[in-house]
Amino acid sequence: MKPYVRNVTIECADPLRLAAFWSEVLGWMVEEPSRWTVELLEREQGAEALEEAVMLVDPEGLEPRLYFQRVDTPERGPNRRMHFDITVDDAEVEVERLTSLGAKNVRWMQDRLGPYIETWAEIEDPEGNLFTLQTEGATELP
Questions:
Q1: What angle do CA 14, 53, 77 make, to 5 degrees?
Q2: How many Å is the Cα radius of gyration of the chain?
């Protein structure tokens, strides 16, 4: 599988408001979470977690999703509030390839939601721009 951009992630103070703005600009739709996802988020993180992130999808299915994620303050500086989420066949192999091309500051991250564990790498390109890399299907049961 060729690497592809799964999401363009935009860190923001108000995901609902910003997603509504970009929905109007692009004519894209909010991707409603499944009933199962809603139940899991409410149980694991509380009802307010449903307002922490909003996805917009291209109605034609051609473009990567826009993922609006609540962040109170940018963690990595004022110029890093947007990044690509890239999906590949094997993230560990791809991290090695990208570091040989000049990528730097690789940090492996993990998050758990209910029984699911998601693993990804945060990486910087040669100029310090953040992106994430994840293996296809990397969210799994422990």
A1: 65
A2: 16
Q: Which residues contact 128 (CB under 8 A, 6 or more apart)?
A: 104
Look at the pTM and tell me if it is higher than 0.90. no
- N- to C-terminal Cα separation, the chain: 25
Write the pLDDT tens digit of every residue in 73-112.
756 555 567 888 988 899 999 999 999 998 999 999 998 8
Spatial distance between the Cα atoms of 45 and 131, rounded to a whole number of angstroms: 25
* DSSP-based three-state secondary structure for 79: coil
Residue 55's contacts (CB-CB under 8 Å, 6 or more residues apart) are 7, 19, 30, 31, 65, 66, 67, 68
CA distance 107 to 72: 21
For residue 83 the two structure tokens come to 């990044």
Amino acid letter for position 42: E
Cα separation, 123 vs 142, whole angstroms: 25
